[in-house]
Amino acid sequence: MERFSQPGSFLQSLILNPFERLISLKSSHLRQVTLMLLFCFGGDGDFDFIDKNFVATKDRHGAYASLFSINYKPLLTSPTDYFRSRQNGTWSAPATWESSADNIAWQIATEVPTKDANTITIQSGHTISISNPVSLDQTVIEGILELQTGGVLNISDGVGDDVTISDNGVLQIVSDGNYLSSINQFPGANINISTGGKIIVGNGITPIGNGYEGLATSAINKWNDGAVYEWNNMNTFATSGLTYFPNAGTAIPIFRITKVSGTPGGSG
């Protein structure tokens, strides 16, 4: 059945307008009718219709509009839902996210994604910041994921790649915490940096913690042809005893130095 893009307008025309002189539903009955119709016609849980349609008709349907706006509640997000960003924001704010049980019908999330999510997508044009410990898996970065001071990435090992940085996607480190305490890849968990994807260490202004060379010297992370590791850090990077992009094979990743202080070298 075709999905209605404006469920509120549909409900208004179906319920309120034809029966505005006759309708006299109890609050509980009205809620049941609303839920039934939303499920049948693909309501996406955005619920903007409550404000934009029913409340706007309050002059004619005041009592009924109030019943809808008071008694209709959003469906709760399941930890195993699909998640995607809906705006710039912090990972820890549910309003940053949308969730979906089927990857088709979306609603504003009522909780934040974790490693239990089906998939997590940071959409292009969005910047999501992390300043506290989070768990993740099956995560695709199309926008920017910014690891700030206090943030910890606990990356679990699931099916396939665990974090994928897509073309034009960015994982940026701006934390003063060290690599070993800020990025925890469980055994087998990997980061796949696609062609055009980037890991940027630093912002060129604030000193960053030590050891983030590990993202590029890890034997489990996948660096594809044209993937970018960018050093934009006031500190120097280590080279002694290290092999960058050890499993690149015939691929040629890019080591880009935007900013560095002193002479690179040492063991980090």
Explain the overall architecture.
The strands form 3 sheets. Strands 4-3-1-5-8-11-14-16 form an 8-stranded mixed sheet, with no helix packed on it. Strands 2-6-9-12-15-17-18 form a 7-stranded parallel sheet, with no helix packed on it. It is an alpha/beta fold and 268 residues long. The protein contains 6 helices and 18 strands. Helix 1 crosses helix 3. 20% of the residues lie in helices and 25% in strands. The termini are far apart.
Strand portion: 15-25%
Query: What global shape is seen?
Result: globular
Which structural class is indicated by helix and strand composition? alpha/beta
- Helix fraction, binned, reads 10-25%
Summed over residues and divided by their number, the pLDDT gives a mean of 81
Q: Main sheet, how many strands, which sense, barrel?
A: 8 strands, mixed
N to C succession of SSEs: HHHHEEEEEEEEEEEEHEEEHEEE
Write out the strand line-up for the largest beta sheet, numbering strands in chain order. Answer: 4-3-1-5-8-11-14-16
> Count of DSSP E strands?
18
Poorly predicted spans: 1-73
Describe the structure concisely:
This protein is an alpha/beta fold and about 270 residues long. The chain is about 20% helix and about 25% strand.
List the helices and strands and how they pair.
Layout: H1 7-16, H2 27-40, H3 48-54, H4 58-71, E1 82-85, E2 89-90, E3 97-100, E4 107-108, E5 120-122, E6 127-130, E7 133-136, E8 139-141, E9 144-148, E10 152-155, E11 163-165, E12 170-174, H5 179-182, E13 183-185, E14 191-193, E15 198-201, H6 214-217, E16 222-223, E17 228-232, E18 254-259
Parallel strand pairs: 1-5, 2-6, 5-8, 6-9, 7-10, 8-11, 9-12, 10-13, 11-14, 12-15, 14-16, 15-17, 17-18
Antiparallel strand pairs: 1-3, 3-4
Helix pairs in contact: 1-3
